Amino acid sequence: MENPYKFIEAEIIDVKDETPTIKTFVLKPKERISFKTGEFMEVAIPGFGEGPFTPSSNPKDDTKLEFTIMDVGRVTGALHRMKTGGVVGLRGPYGKGYPLGEFKGKEILIVGGGVGLAPIRSLIYALFNQLDNYKKIYLKYGAKTPPDIMYKDEVDRWSKDGRSDVKLTVDAGDAKWKGNVGLVTTILEDLKIDLNKSVSVVCGPPIMMKFVTFKLLEIGYKPEDIYLSMEKNMSCGIGKCGHCRIGNSYACKDGPVFSYKTIKDYPNIWD
Ligand SMILES: Cc1cc2nc3c(=O)[nH]c(=O)nc-3n(C[C@H](O)[C@H](O)[C@H](O)COP(=O)(O)OP(=O)(O)OC[C@H]3O[C@@H](n4cnc5c(N)ncnc54)[C@H](O)[C@@H]3O)c2cc1C
Ligand code: FES
């Protein structure tokens, strides 16, 4: 039987600074790797360990993968110190991503916070790849300050593309910022969406996901139409260690994308 923990080597072919704490790593794996948007992979840094990360790139391109990663500790810090030409290990993809089949014919409201825009970028690529299938894409994104806004050029492009409607907010503005100031829930107030033909996708820090979910329920979204990307602590990534349990499910195997309906009655889902 093939070793489920076997890594594929991947060379870092580019590193882009997104914000003071977030970088995008463009990786060229030794073997082609295909993934579906929302699935995750384990990325290993030799000598430091591994961690789960969701590719932020276009799922249509299986020759390279991009990961957008915030420096929060041991593994992410070691990766942030690596340069072009460095080699990391990849295993996966794992889990269940966004159920694009369920999104067909609908308006898609995407709500992101902080580094949560990473999986959303890949989702937006996937939606744009087959845009005739969807009615409209709305993106509401919140960052702490203007320099913390990720993918500035792409967000600008999406804003100018008539097929998507983009609105940004920051918790605290600066002298140049002309946009909204306030938590991401403040830009969910004036939605002109037919809720019966819409799904929402939420990705960001747990506290943000909690308040956005409650806001979406208040607006009238049904629990089955709210999709959450759950970043539970993970170890094995393949349903063996039990670290990522949510009720009777494992976030690594049954998620990381869950509809709110399937997990809402379990305790501590926002921890
Ligand atoms: C399915 C899945 C997909 C993910 N995708 C991404 C992604 O695309 N990009 C990305 O940057 N991260 C992503 N993460 C989070 C990422 O896995 C962790 O940030 C990473 O494993 C931390 O490893 P570390 O060794 O650097 O930090 P550690 O040394 O283990 O942790 C250092 C400290 O940071 C805290 N910490 C851990 N994670 C976070 C976090 N996300 N935000 C703030 N503080 C944190 C810990 O609680 C601890 O206090 C994802 C997580 C999951 C489960
Ligand atoms: S990470 Fe081991 S069971 Fe999910």
Task: Describe what you observe in this structure.
The chain has 271 residues and is of the alpha/beta class. It is built from seven helices and 15 strands. The mean pLDDT is 94. It has two domains: 8-94, Translation factors (Elongation Factor Tu (Ef-tu), domain 3), CATH 2.40.30; 100-229, Nucleotide-binding domain of ferredoxin-NADP reductase (FNR) module (Rossmann fold), CATH 3.40.50.80. The strands form three sheets. A seven-stranded mixed beta sheet has the order 10-9-8-7-11-12-15, sandwiched between helices. The chain has helices at residues 74-80, 100-103, 117-129, 152-160, 206-219, 251-254, 260-263, and strands at 8-19, 22-29, 40-45, 49-53, 65-70, 87-94, 107-113, 136-143, 164-170, 180-181, 198-203, 226-229, 245-246, 249-250, 257-259. β3 and β4 (49-53) form a beta hairpin. The site of FE2/S2 (inorganic) cluster has 12 residues, from loops. Residues 40, 51-54, 67-70, 72-77, 115, 118, 231-232, 234, 256 line the site of flavin-adenine dinucleotide (FAD).
Main sheet characteristics: 7 strands, mixed
Structural class from helices and strands?
alpha/beta
Helical residue percent? 10-25%
Bound small molecules, which ones?
A: flavin-adenine dinucleotide, FE2/S2 (inorganic) cluster
> What is the total tally of β strands?
15
Annotated CATH architecture of the largest domain: 3-Layer(aba) Sandwich
* Rg over alpha carbons: 18 Å
Compute the number of structural domains.
Answer: 2
Give the CATH class of the largest domain. Alpha Beta
CATH superfamily of the largest domain: Nucleotide-binding domain of ferredoxin-NADP reductase (FNR) module
The CATH topology assignment of the largest domain is: Rossmann fold
- The fraction of residues assigned to DSSP E strands is 25-35%
The pLDDT mean sits at 94
Number of helices: 7
